[in-house]
Amino acid sequence: MLRNSKVGDTMQYRVVVFGVKDTSENIVSFIQEHICPVDLVVTISPEVTKKNQVSGYKGLSGLTEKYGIPVHEADSYFLTDEKTQKFFTENEFDIGISMGWQRLIPKSVLDRFAYGIYGFHGNAGYLPFGRGRSPLNWSIILGDTRFNLNLFCYDEKADSPNVFATEMFSITPQDDIRTAQYKNMICSKNLIKKLLAAYKEGNISVRTDSKDFDSWYNKRTAADGKIDFHGRTREIYNLIRGVAAPFPGAFAYVGEEKVTVWEAQPFDEMIDFSAYAPGEVIDVFDGHPIVRTVDGSLLIKKYESAKELQAGDVLA
Predict the structure, then answer these.
(1) How does pLDDT run across 271-301, given as a tens digit for each residue?
(2) What is the pTM of this model?
(3) DSSP string, 220-259
């Protein structure tokens, strides 16, 4: 594959990566070092992140110094700003790969790519089941034990079943969102290898004949991480691991003090804790509080708070 070329005032960018996160940087490095040159990175300016919640945001301008890759910083997460629209209109592009880009890409940009723009979306089933926001977080929170990761061709709709290829990985009880992201990245790299090999051969085949039904994951915000200790242990545990770092974390309050729970595990469901209220700290060992749940107890392994939790505190 050739590097980007220039014809008159028009640049031709062959391989383009869209991204805004540390995972985006990881994918650029992988493609650049193991497959082929990345000719352009499209990201958003730091100012845009102030208007958009971007968990795990990573500025990508350093890729120019590291690899010599030009980086276009859009002034709109939806790529609708005048500067970005002009850039895509005036240049030519072959194939795009989106990693960590959490917005629809407009038709005006999609139409500029000769081979299309491809991105990732997964769930426990098969597209169009499980469209929408934060699918990996939701899969952990809902207690799913497998994740089908699809590399699909973008169109104007969200997560359409235009599937190039799929890889599956397990979600174990020990996984949190970060370790699930590791698995997701390994499978993403395998899928990108296949896509760029097909691109090099000029033969990318996309399957659109899904027999599954539409379902949607709702958008998640930081406020959705609030823990209800009237819930079952497994539900609380799944929430905590589903919104762990680099996401905002699960939280509760002791009085007016916020307690962010970063790591926990189910503790015991047989000991009689009926003398304690749900959410009450039963005891503390080695700095780790044990908290009553409806059907057992939870061991908090890592938390953040201005207040050190003590026996008798109630997480409300």
Answers:
(1) 999 999 999 999 999 999 999 999 999 999 9
(2) 0.90
(3) --GGGGB--TTS-HHHHHHHHHHS-TTS--EEEEETTEEE
